[in-house]
Specification:
CATH topology of the largest domain in chain B: Aconitase, domain 4
Number of strands of chain A: 19
Bound molecules: iron/sulfur cluster
Structural class of chain B: alpha/beta
CATH architecture of the largest domain in chain B: Alpha-Beta Barrel
Helix content of chain A: 25-40%
Shape of chain B: globular
Strand content of chain B: 5-15%
Order of helices and strands of chain B: EHHEHEHEHEEEHHH
Largest sheet of chain A: 5 strands, parallel
Oligomer: heterodimer
Distance between the termini of chain B: 18 Å
Largest sheet of chain B: 7 strands, mixed
Distance between the termini of chain A: 33 Å
Structural class of chain A: alpha/beta
CATH class of the largest domain in chain B: Alpha Beta
Radius of gyration of chain A: 22 Å
Chain lengths: ~500, ~210
């Protein structure tokens, strides 16, 4: 911190610059900066080779207390009391366990009440805090940027580097302000907002940037909705996403297990973080929240997205040859026809969950839609809560019953069909409405076809068997969905 | 890390944009806890048919491309997941150099960690390379890292940019962690300035 104090007074800085400056351990011109890392999250898939290499090189974990692990990617979402049937998955989870034991890293294991998707439990436990640098061997680490933390995904070699040194070599990314002013229309969620932005930027448009989301539409989002937005910053190719901390952030954190003991002095520090008046971003993009309609992806990357009221695009109408080819290949893989209304697309499966939309507000929004309805005959639908606490909270509120009565499967927490490393996966040719973050070819199972949507849109598609405009939904029982203000349950 | 100085090899052209890491190495192979052996699964879902036989339609399965070590690709190569298994698989398959108009950030970083050289060139140059690869049978390129140069047997002499420090590390096969630990005192000073307890001798990581 001392290193940056003098620059702090000389010129206005962005939120990103402040966090960056606060973490510079060493900098030489034209070289990567050595940044201090406050928190590393670890999971079973990208860590075994890092620990193994530490062992080979005879190194230790420098700050085990700044490292937290949980298995999530591989874990079965069925009965937890049974042994894991997939032997290789079991080996990987056992390896995480023994590595954590050997190197003194805290682990939230399968039987742990707090276990869940790594990007959901970090915030839930209060580990994720404003102003921090956070890394994880997972691209959706950008989620934690919702708290005003500089958070990004790294590869396994870098996981090892952080374990050994608690630092990371980084080139300074550029900053891009994504300013969204106005109010989202009823039924339009944070997921629609971020899908819309990715559609505008394209899936590579944010490459090399940290996106800071600003504007009245972003400030009015709940903490959970902000996480949905930052989670998908990586899908625009960005290094990470950021949202300035404010009272909503502080209220979310207050009282959580790992929130600072001296909360008041932490508040004082955090209040210094937001971007100064007059600070300059390398690039600015402005959007109007009122333009955003419920979104549905039609292609095989998240930038191939349109309003639910649109039709499957015609590749021949695309200007650039490369984009035309990409669109044509995507439409072929997705087995769609140009010109068909998105609402005519029939689906076979519905997946509600993931680090994008597996939190309690997401489940409430979906439950409100399905309450009083039955899942369409042709559809198999499942809900996978993002963590143990989310699951318990949902059960306390009776959401599990609503889902079950409507014909949904109610599962144990994990990544599940977001990437289909566990037994939850699409069969070849199956079409899925999914609340996750990637519609890549085969992401949810070889030959499977994924359309990304919001939780409410996925729920409605489960009932109707095809996409519908959620703004026209007839809510049968109870309220439409919880207000953002109720987002701060400390489950 | 393995050093990279220069390399001459057969070029495989892959005319697809946004090739994501889920395609480079599908998730069913991420359960392995080793770093090696991923080459057999590279581009698995594109490369093999349902019955496990090679898909004749897939570009890398063309018999003329056997032994290719330079991959020519389109924009945003390596997007998606942070899995380092992707460069591991490319490397294990035999690729040493990747050439594209743009790479996804995390993937690009991961390549350098494994002695794989990703080269970014302007779209027009890439277009020209695709034309050459499609025109000349057995098209090969030579890459001289020290001179930042790409050459072919048909008069091509193309320079490329690479961060000087990364180049230095590649040329000498330098290990990142060892380099960083040269700053161990600075790290300790940073921690002390934040009021973190000092590490005991036995807790030192080096
Ligand atoms: S839920 Fe999906 S995107 Fe999120 S960490 Fe798990 S696999 Fe990755």
């Amino acid at each position: 911190m001392a290193a940056s104090e003098d620059t702090a007074t000389t010129r206005p800085r962005t939120l990103f610059e402040k966090i960056w400056d606060n973490h510079v351990v060493h900098h030489e011109p034209n070289r990567q900066t050595l940044l201090y890392i406050d928190l590393q999250l670890v999971h079973e898939v990208t860590s075994p080779q890092a620990f193994e290499q530490l062992r080979i090189e005879g190194r230790r974990v420098r700050r085990p207390e700044l490292t937290v692990a949980t298995p999530d990617h591989n874990v079965p979402t069925s009965d937890r009391s049974l042994p894991i049937a997939d032997e290789i998955a079991r080996t990987q989870i056992d390896t995480l366990r023994s590595n954590c034991r050997e190197f003194g890293v805290r682990i939230y294991d399968l039987q742990d009440p707090e276990q869940g998707i790594v990007h959901i439990i970090g915030p839930e436990l209060g580990l994720t805090q404003p102003g921090m640098t956070i890394v994880c061997g997972d691209s959706h680490t950008s989620t934690h940027g919702a708290f005003g933390a500089l958070a990004f995904g790294i590869g396994t070699s870098e996981v090892q580097h952080v374990l050994a040194t608690q630092t990371l070599r980084q080139f300074k990314p550029k900053t891009c302000e994504i300013c969204v002013e106005g109010a989202l229309a009823r039924g339009v969620s944070a997921k629609d907002l971020v899908l819309y932005i990715i559609g505008q930027l394209t899936s590579a448009g944010g490459t090399g940037y940290i996106l800071e989301f600003t504007g009245s539409a972003v400030r009015s989002l709940s903490m959970e909705q902000r996480m949905t937005v930052c989670n998908m910053a990586i899908e625009a190719g960005a290094r990470g996403g950021l949202i300035a901390p404010d009272e909503i952030t502080y209220e979310y954190l207050r009282g959580r297990e790992f929130a600072p003991e001296d909360f008041e002095s932490a508040l004082e520090r955090w209040r210094q973080l937001p971007t100064d008046e007059g600070a300059v971003y390398d690039r600015v993009e402005r959007y109007c929240a009122g333009d955003i309609e419920p979104q549905v992806t039609w292609g095989t990357n998240p930038g191939q997205v349109l309003s639910v009221l649109d039709r499957v695009p015609d590749p021949d109408a695309t200007e650039r040859e490369e984009d035309r080819k990409a669109a044509a290949a995507a439409i072929e893989y997705m087995a769609l026809k140009p010109g068909v209304p998105l609402t005519d697309i029939e689906i076979d499966r519905v997946f509600i969950g993931s680090c994008t939309n597996g939190r309690i507000e997401d489940l409430r929004a979906a439950a409100a839609v399905v309450s009083g309805y039955r899942v369409a005959d042709r559809v198999g639908a499942m809900v996978v809560p993002g963590s143990g606490p989310v699951k318990r909270q949902a059960e306390q509120e009776g959401l599990d019953n609503i889902f079950r009565q409507s014909g949904f499967d109610w599962r144990e927490p994990g990544c599940s069909m977001c990437l289909a490393m566990n037994p939850d996966k699409l069969e070849p040719g199956e079409r899925c409405a999914s609340t996750s973050n990637r519609n890549f070819e085969g992401r949810q199972g070889k030959g499977g076809r994924t359309h990304l949507v919001s939780p409410a849109m996925a729920a409605a598609a489960a009932i109707k068997g095809h996409f519908v405009d959620i703004r026209d939904w007839n809510y049968r029982d109870g309220v439409e969905s919880a207000s953002p203000a109720s987002a701060t349950d400390k489950t | 890390m393995r050093a990279f100085t220069q390399h001459t090899g057969l070029v495989a052209a892959m005319d697809r944009s946004n090739v994501d890491t889920d395609q480079i190495i599908p998730k069913q192979f991420l359960k392995r806890i080793e770093r090696t052996g991923f080459g057999a699964f590279l581009f698995f879902d594109w490369r093999f048919l349902e019955d496990g036989t090679p898909n004749p339609e897939f570009e890398l399965n063309c018999p003329d491309l056997e032994g290719a070590s330079i991959l020519l690709a389109r924009q945003n190569f390596g997007c998606g997941s942070s899995r380092e298994h992707a460069p591991w698989a490319l490397d294990d398959y035999g690729f040493r150099i990747l050439i594209a108009p743009s790479f996804a950030d995390i993937f690009y970083n991961n390549c350098f960690q494994n002695g794989l050289l990703p080269i970014v060139l302007d779209a027009e140059v890439i277009e020209d390379l695709f034309t050459r690869a499609n025109t000349y049978p057995g098209y090969t390129l030579s890459v001289q890292l020290a001179e930042n140069l790409i050459l072919d047997d048909h008069g091509l002499k193309q320079s490329f940019e690479i961060d000087p420090f990364r180049k230095h590390c590649l040329l000498h096969g330098l290990d990142d962690i060892a380099l960083t630990l040269e700053h161990a005192e600075r790290i300790a000073a940073y921690e002390a300035a934040r009021g973190m307890p000092a590490l005991s001798e036995s807790g030192e990581s080096n």
